[in-house]
């Protein structure tokens, strides 16, 4: 009986552990570093160069952060933003190196690939970093093109999520002539020409006709821009409603299809949640929610849900995607009423209810233009922080019920 009780408790413990272990979720390097003001400049440039999104999209990575003083030394030479990106990408190792692993390197040395190497911009092996466990507990870092000179050292561990993300501080910026070389910026991209040539001509022509909206898109192109352009069929069908909008609302609707940062498809898949647009301005939110639906990426407003159907260009700092519907912001259009759940079928023995004599109200059409902005979103509609979200798993709950039933049955035998 005692053995049976021990077995019962063990099985129950394992079941509960299986049920309630939270699912793994993506890390967010900028939020993590925000808790450490000594790395504020480094953190700022991870965002400015869009390296933060690339870091967040990877599951096994080490970020070698440098403090504000080291970043000041780097910026004193006035490098272009593209050169800064190359230098900082050399500080992102494509493997996990926590403090313990750094001091237990096999044979005392390891060669780590970096994000600089992964971009293809680093010739030969210049995108690799040598890590050496030195005497006295020191760990040194040296890029391959630094002639094996070690003058950068491990300072401390900042944050470790074992085998997924390690953030460590190193004493100074890694010296690399290749990474620090002047880097040319991308060739200027004609946004409307790209869209016109790939099935979004109606949207592109409409954008060109709106001087204010076109200027907003162009002014954001150099710093980072993501455009979601509706296909010709979708926008043609919407044109009659578009023509009924005021000039200001036409501009807002067009700007609603642009996001003022570069977002690769991988970044969109890993960073689900609310996203501001070029139309966002103070109290006027003009945002939408990015969600994964299997392998698809959807953009959800309170009025419509559109799906990304193709990629026209994805080359930093610009990404342009085609979508199957026009994005309709709740600030300009009435939100769709939620479809009520169907009533349960009546019991066969019960009297059939008499049909109601009242006419049901028609749900507002997405095409109806709102006279005033819609009320603030309910708290329940807000998207939870992806770094703290834990999803309830119905299948695991079912497993718990079955396991508890089996345990009770065993004890009663």
Percent helix: 25-40%
Low-confidence stretches: 1-25, 346-397
Query: How much β-strand is present in the residues?
Result: 15-25%
Shape type? elongated
Task: Give a count of the beta strands, DSSP E runs of length 2 or more.
Answer: 14
Strand order of the largest sheet: 2-1-7-6-5-4-3
User: What is the CA-based Rg, rounded?
Assistant: 27 Å
Largest sheet entry: 7 strands, mixed
Instruction: Kindly report how far apart the N and C termini lie.
Output: 10 Å
What is the SS-derived class? alpha+beta
The overall average pLDDT, rounded, is 79
What is the number of helical segments per DSSP (H or I, 4+ residues)? 16
User: Which sequence of SSEs, written as H and E, runs from N to C?
Assistant: HHHHEHHEHEHEEEEHHHHEHHEHEEEEEH
Features of this protein?
413 residues; alpha+beta; single chain; 7-stranded mixed sheet; 16 helices; elongated
Task: Give an overview of the whole structure.
The chain has 413 residues and is an alpha+beta fold. The chain has helices at residues 2-20, 29-33, 40-48, 51-56, 68-75, 81-89, 99-102, 115-118, 177-180, 191-196, 201-209, 211-221, 232-243, 247-255, 265-270, 394-412; strands spanning 61-65, 92-93, 109-113, 128-133, 139-143, 152-161, 165-170, 225-230, 258-259, 273-275, 288-293, 296-300, 305-315, 318-323. The protein has a 7-stranded mixed β-sheet with strand order 2-1-7-6-5-4-3. It has a 7-stranded mixed β-sheet with strand order 9-8-14-13-12-11-10. Strand 6 (152-161) and strand 7 (165-170) form a beta hairpin. Helix 12 (211-221) packs parallel to helix 14 (247-255).
């Amino acid at each position: 009986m005692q053995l049976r009780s021990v077995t019962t408790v063990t099985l129950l413990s394992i079941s509960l552990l299986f049920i309630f272990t939270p699912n793994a979720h993506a890390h967010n390097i900028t939020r993590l570093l925000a808790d450490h003001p000594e790395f504020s400049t480094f953190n700022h440039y991870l965002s400015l160069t869009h390296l933060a999104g690339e870091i967040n999209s990877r599951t096994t990575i080490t970020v070698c952060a440098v403090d504000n003083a080291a970043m000041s030394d780097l910026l004193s030479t006035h490098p272009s933003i593209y050169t800064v990106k190359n230098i900082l990408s050399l500080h992102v190792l494509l493997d996990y190196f926590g403090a313990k692993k750094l001091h237990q390197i096999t044979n005392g040395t390891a060669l780590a690939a970096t994000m600089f190497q992964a971009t293809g911009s680093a010739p030969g092996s210049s995108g690799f970093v040598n890590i050496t466990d030195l005497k006295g507990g020191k760990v040194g870092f040296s890029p391959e093109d630094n002639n094996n000179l070690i003058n950068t050292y491990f300072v401390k561990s900042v944050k470790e999520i074992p085998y997924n993300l390690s953030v460590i501080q190193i004493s100074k910026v890694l010296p690399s002539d290749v990474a620090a070389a002047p880097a040319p910026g991308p060739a200027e991209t004609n946004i409307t020409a790209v869209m016109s040539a790939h099935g979004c001509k109606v949207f592109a022509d409409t954008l060109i006709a709106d001087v204010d909206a076109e200027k907003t898109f162009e002014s954001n192109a150099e710093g980072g821009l993501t455009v979601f352009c509706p296909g010709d069929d979708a926008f043609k069908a919407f044109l009659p409603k578009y023509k009924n909008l005021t000039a200001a609302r036409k501009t807002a609707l067009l700007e609603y299809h642009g996001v003022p940062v570069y977002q690769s498809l991988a970044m969109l898949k890993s960073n689900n949640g609310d996203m501001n647009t070029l139309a966002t301005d103070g109290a006027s939110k003009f945002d939408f929610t990015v969600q994964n639906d299997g392998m698809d990426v959807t953009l959800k407003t309170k009025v419509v849900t559109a799906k990304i159907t193709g990629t026209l260009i994805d080359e930093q700092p610009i990404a342009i995607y085609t979508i199957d519907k026009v994005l309709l912001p709740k600030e300009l259009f009435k939100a769709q009423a939620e479809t009520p759940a169907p009533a349960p079928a009546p019991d066969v023995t019960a009297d059939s209810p008499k049909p109601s004599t009242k006419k049901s109200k028609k749900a507002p059409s997405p095409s109806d233009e709102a006279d005033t902005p819609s009320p603030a979103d309910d708290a329940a509609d807000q998207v939870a922080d992806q770094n703290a979200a834990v999803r309830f798993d119905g299948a695991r709950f079912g497993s718990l019920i079955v396991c508890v039933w089996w345990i009770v049955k065993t004890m009663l035998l």
